[in-house]
Amino acid sequence: VKPKLPERWREAKIREERLRVDVSAGCGLSLEFSDFGFAVEEVEDMPGQQLEAGEVIVAIEGRILAGMTGPQMQASFHKRRLNGARMHVANLIQVQELSLRDPAIVEQWDNIKKANYYFHKKSGKTAWTWQ
How far apart are CA 110 and CA 98, in angstroms? Predict the structure, then answer.
């Protein structure tokens, strides 16, 4: 899934979870449209998901949700909303922050100072902070 994501936030920590769907309770999720996929607002006890508020479902069954309109995202999710469906999940705040970064800036490690620094591939400048 990562190669299909927008380049600016491919570095986000993304994990795979399985969707649990109950015949009577549904999937027990309250989801909100975002530019990055479906943001998890609330998780009900039944049927229970390995998700929490503040996360975002970026893909379901290999279908990237980022960049879709609200109705497209909803239709794609509902089409694939089956018990055991594979979801790819990330932290919404991390994805939002990464999406704002310039792709020409890369994070590096300084072995002497034992700290991260940032290098701009186009200008050749370095800095200790991202901004």
Answer: 21
Tally of domains in the chain:
1
Q: Does residue 47 have a cis bond before it (omega within 30 degrees)? A: yes
pLDDT by residue, tens only, the chain of 131 residues: 888 988 888 889 999 999 999 998 899 999 999 999 999 999 999 999 999 999 999 999 999 999 899 999 999 999 999 999 999 999 999 999 988 888 788 889 999 999 999 999 999 999 988 76
- How far apart CA 80 and CA 20 sit, in angstroms, is 12
Is the residue at 107 inside a domain?
Answer: no
Q: Is 112 among the domain residues? A: no
Helix, strand, coil percentages (3-state) for the chain, rounded to 5, are 20, 35, 45
Tokens of 87: 């979801």
Q: Does residue 117 lie in a domain region?
A: no
| For the chain, counts of helices (H) and of strands (E) | 2, 9
Whether residue 106 lies inside any domain: the answer is no
